[in-house]
Amino acid sequence: MLQQSISKNGLLLCVFALITAGILAGTYEGTKSTIAQAEKKAAQKALLEIIPAERIDNDILLETLPIPEKYWDMLGLTTGGDIHLARHQQKTIAVIIPAVAPDGYSGAIKLIVGVNRNGTIAGVRALSHTETPGLGDKIDTKKSDWILGFNQRSLSSPSNDNWQVKKDGGDFDQFTGATITPRAVVGQVKRVLEFVQQQQISLFPQEKTTHE
Q1: 65-81, pLDDT tens digit by residue?
Q2: What order of strands is seen across the sheet that includes strand 91-101?
Q3: Are 182 and 173 in contact (CB under 8 A)?
């Protein structure tokens, strides 16, 4: 009798587990589409903060180029990523590049950096980080406008030696009580500009001209 009772309870537990798994799977399938749409909207919002919709006539979220593996380390990437292309009248006017500053105060800082065709920065945004609230989290536009200070900067403005925080003799402000976070972001943004400079021809091919 005891063995039958154990077997019966085991069977009931198995059935319960299968039903629970089925419910969870159904819930996941039912919400997967909603989650994907929400993630797409969030990504699009971040991209369009850097390159406004009025500047382009393509779907910046869908038009991409894979980052060559040899540049992953330079951009702080471990599994690669895609470059988003901003186009107007079939001409690439800017690119948005994912990058990771691995040396933040509390860990890696995921960024996207928009670079115009002329080599100036269209914008920078921090997508995720674990920096200290009230200090390092000032890289968020909700907390501070510090990151907007990269707009229109380039490898020649400021000069190479001045692509540092002011504490290190450069042009960029650090945060009161927090230097490591801005130092990490400044360094990685500069490396993105160097990547674009090296890949200028591939990212911004010359327009084809026709002759009569």
Answers
A1: 999 999 999 999 999 99
A2: 64-66, 82-88, 91-101, 109-116, 121-128
A3: yes
Contact 143, 129 (CB under 8 A): no
Question: Rounded to whole angstroms, how far apart are CA atoms 204 and 66?
Answer: 15
What residues have CB less than 8 Å from 40, skipping those under 6 apart? 61
Q: How far apart are CA 121 and CA 59, in angstroms?
A: 20
**Distance from C-alpha of 75 to C-alpha of 191, rounded to nearest angstrom:** 7
Amino acid at the residue 45: K
185: tokens are: 């972001």
pLDDT in tens, 13-50: 656 656 655 565 555 555 656 765 665 666 678 889 99
Under 8 Å between Cβ of 124 and 147: yes
**pTM for the full model?**
0.80
Q: Are 84 and 72 in contact (CB under 8 A)?
A: no
Extract the tokens encoding 114: 């928009």
